Amino acid sequence: MSDQAILNIEEEIKIKEQYLDISPEGDFVVEFVLLENESVFKFRMYNVEQPNKNDYLDLKNSNSLSYSKLSSIHTSQTLEFTKKQLEFIKSKNKLSWSVAVSDKSSSITNFRLLAISCISHDDMALKIENPNKKLSGFTIVFAIRDYSINNKIISQFNEYSGIIKLFFKNDDIQNVNGCLLIILNVSGIYKFHFKHLNHKPTFKIQKLRYPKRTNIAMNYYNDYYNKHVNHLHLGPEKIRYLNMEYIKACLNKNYFLADTMLEGSQYMDLYDLKPNQLVNTFQRQNSSGSGLTYRPGFFEISKNNKFLAYKFKSTRRVKLYSIECGLEVASIKIDETDETSYD
To answer: Where are the beta strands (DSSP E) in 247-315?
Structure first.
């Protein structure tokens, strides 16, 4: 899928920021567009079309290797932030944005849930001088029906912001009762189970702690960055941005990977955020020059959730693991000539 295909769409309205997300099933893309004056925003929506099985695929033509195509959906409506939200967006405490979209329900209404989160610096800071003065961002959840939002806000969270995910719990896509909103920041993982589509939330968000190894890694490297702030040319804002990017690197679909070489560990743990359970542990070697220290290696989960593909940052080898048994089933070496060999 090409981001360029999305970002090159011509519009008369001037755009300040853009953020993308794809549904867990990979069939729908949403682009959150913050307009130049910051008080107005809109969503662009795209269906992901799979190629026809009879289509000829020319492996020598790089332009034909895209497995999916985007089909733009006409959505012209714009939405506005509240006065309080706008004040925060324009403040120095705003760090970034996150956007998430759920799969489509299988009920008659065929709705999706869509969420945006305005992330604050404080929500990505491990240490705050005065916790009583902590400023959190906000998160808004919408319902989409027939590709229209119609100002249908399901819920607003004015004290929570972070990287957000939307899932149907246990693949129950009949109604919103099975939908989970997950918010991740340095304080932990916050889960909200939607009770009713047309009612305000009636209970608190569940807060979960990160795996111990993840907390150790974040604290260790935040201390390191703060001690060498002048040498590394990293200010507080950059460190908080790195914390946010670290959390992103640990996420894939509804999975969270705890993976670090601190303390000489030679394994990584995969967690499922839906039931809050450890899925399996995978062994790996601490290869010299692997580049794995603070952030985890690159990883991808197969569409059927049966395989985990893992790659060290600075190596040209991809490991394939069985999620069910935790064993390595294949090793793929990518040579500098772009030739691929299998072990």
So the answer is: 251-252, 255-258, 267-272, 277-283, 298-301, 307-311
What pLDDT, in 10s, does the model give residues 240-252?
Answer: 998 999 999 999 9
State the residue for tokens 């000539």. Answer: 337
Q: Where are the domains of the chain?
A: 3-208, 246-342
- Nearest 5°: the CA angle 336, 340, 343 is 120
Kindly report, residue by residue over 81-95, the tens digit of the pLDDT: 999 999 999 999 999
Give me the helix-helix angle, 212-227 and 236-249, nearest 10°.
Answer: 150
Helix, strand or coil, per DSSP, at residue 96: strand
Contact between 35 and 73 (Cβ < 8 Å): no
**DSSP assignment letter at 305:** S
Integer Cα distance of 59 and 338 in angstroms: 14
DSSP state at residue 221: H
Asked whether the beta carbons of 162 and 184 are under 8 A apart, the reply is: yes
pTM for the full predicted model: 0.84
DSSP character for 148? Answer: B
Query: Is the separation of the CB atoms in 323 and 305 below 8 Å?
Result: yes
